[in-house]
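Re: that chain you flagged

S.,

Sorry for the slow reply, it's been a week of failed gels. I finally had a moment to sit down with the sequence you sent. For the record, here it is as I used it:
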Amino acid sequence: MGKIFRFYKDVDTDQIIASQYLLYPTIDEMKEHTFESLDPDFAANVRPGDYVVADENFGCGSSREQAPSVLKALGVKAVIAKSFARIFYRNSINIGMPVIVCKELYDNVKAGEEMELDLEAGEIRVGDRKFSCTKLPLKMQSILDQGGLIASLNK
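Prediction finished late last night. Pasting the structure tokens below so you have them in one place:
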């Protein structure tokens, strides 16, 4: 079980991690500034196993790989949204961060609620409610299980 952190439509990569923090030498230094303009307390409050739930077009903007990387470094288990910007989606898979499409979740949950994601079944549970979500193809699930595309290719 993890807590839901809820964000709206069209969250761009600069809102996930602002460009001035890209000058920091490591993701660990950058991660403390995740979502700083939207939720200044996000990095302090998120815990490993928590979830980011968003409306449409999450991760639009630039192609920076640091956006999904800071979320993964903070322990976010997955990002679930109605839709994703294509480059954010691809970068997330490349680094081993699950990104799941679920059209119904955002409109039916609140920030702070506890949820559980079953990637294999393509199911999300929030209390006694169930939501169907993207069930990842086996090849993509294998890439995530190995820590991302680069890790998968190295193995």
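What I noticed first: The mean pLDDT is 94.

Talk soon,
D.
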